[in-house]
Amino acid sequence: MSILILDHNFIFLRSLREILTQNFPLVTIRNATSAKEGYRKLKQYPCAVVFLDINLPGGKGLEIGRAIKASHHDITVIMMSHNDLPEYHIAARNAHIDFFISKDHCSIEHILALTRYGLSKQKPIKSQGRGPHPIAAVSTTESGR
After folding, report:
1. Is the pLDDT confidence value at 82 over 90?
2. Under a CB-based contact definition with an 8 Å cutoff, are residues 64 and 38 in contact?
3. 47-57 confidence digits (pLDDT tens)
């Protein structure tokens, strides 16, 4: 299982990645700083949860979120913004985004709960009919990052 963080704010991205890595050590955390890079990584790596900045360069976050949900309806998409306006919440809901959180007012516990929810929706990987595949060897880092 993996999580993808799409955000151009390196400080926020690094902080979120650190929180997720500490709390989900068996989950691979990947990141992208543009829409193009995000699409490429999403296509290349299976993903359970996507954290998506609403103001991502190279494409509007809502459009990216809508496209992700249209092609990968099982992925939990969590839209993030510094602007906590009701219009953004409505637009995210209309784009079929699973959750909308304020970067300024969201607690670590809330982020972890949403992440647990998204990871729990994924079906276990089967290994040649012998039950769930152990995921203990999954890395929390991405080569080249």
Report:
1. no
2. yes
3. 999 999 998 87
